[in-house]
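All the exercises in this workshop are built on plain-text protein records. Sequence and backbone structure share a record, each on its own labelled line. The structure tokens are whole numbers drawn from a learned vocabulary of backbone shapes. The record below serves as our worked example for the rest of this section.
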Amino acid sequence: MQGKGSAAIHRYHKKHGLSAVRVGPNEVSLPADPEVLKEVYGPTFLKSRHYDAFKIAGHAPIFGERSREAHAARVKRILPWMSKANVLQIGEPIIQEKVSKLCSRFDALIQEGSAAVDVLKSFRCFAVDSISAFTLPEGWNTLDEEDLDSPMGTVIDVINTSAPTAFFSLRFHAWYDHVKQKLRSLLDSEGLAREGDAFGRLDAFADKSYEQSLKDNGSDVVTSFRQCTNADGEPLTKQQIKTEIEDLLFAGTDSSATTLSTIAFHVCRSKSIQERLLSELREVMPHRDSHVTLKTLEKLPYLTAAIREGLRVAQPVPRRLPRVVPPGGWTYERTGQYLPEGAIVGVAAYELHRSSPFADPESFLPERWLGDNTSLVQMTAAFAAFGRGSRMCIGQNFAMAELYLATAYLFRRFAGEVITPKEIVYLDNFNASIKGGSVTLRLRVVN
């Protein structure tokens, strides 16, 4: 992990043990203590002002909404759509279709003699097509385009580059709007023109999705947002709903693509992992073109272990998610450290995923998740890939379905070896991003 932040704070935590580490005038990083998670990410510790940085056009999406009441009102409408039952009924067929299309693109590249595949860019296309088709009136369908380089990928790169400054400096709220305005005012080069076009396409797609939802009045997440109201009882405005759409596409693309690329990189780099995974997949997918359900895949122990390990290593959001100490203050009981009300606290996934339950934490070891029950309980308690508590990621059921289906079909149909990079280095933005923006594998067909 490069960049200041999580890695540097981790070194201080290693030095001072279970003590809280002061990282700002009024901000503290808490150690990897699973018991702390239950309190700090419970209902009484609200999100801090840092989350105002996620506003788009002055509006906070669900993730950035600090008001408990406003957040609960919107989530109540959206959660049924994101439920496991709905993912199985509506989401899985969509993901199956997108995975099939992705594998067909890989087959075509191999037949053309271009076996080198940038899986990070490919997985971004797969992820944005999947989440958009699942939640919106129409999918984006970037997998149908000639170049597997989704405009959403460009948006992600620009946002991730600016995120560390924006999220951790209250002088730069609404950084998303700032980036868009900058791009539009500086379109004097090919690179900036491409970035401006990507943001323009995202905004146009959100606008189209909203208008299509009005026209169809069908069953999708946009319709659910149109049924939400603000504190004054008025329905969400068009811009508020577009904010939710754009945030949904960003969140639903970046983390899934980074995690899938991490899994693919480590599986392809280890012959033993690759062979063991293929052997297990052949038990339920005897032929290369075999169809398999999500429920069947979820029962495969080694596949499940590889996905969990991929989430642990990729740590989609490595930094601490800041919360505000409630009125009356709070005492960290393990050390007796008292923090006054208004202080900002948080626990980083970077810290949790390198804590004592994880031996040799820098290595990709799926078999660690196949150990005894005691070890599994301890690791699960320190696992925070989707956050913890009352504000956990509402899209985790869909994300897990993507990880299972994409990993299974990819490694049942293809074997691979890593071309670049030699090692994945994660940049410490708000979301973890892969340095260089590329993971290139040489794929070959497996029968």
In short: Confidence is low (pLDDT under 50) at residues 166-176, 182-188.
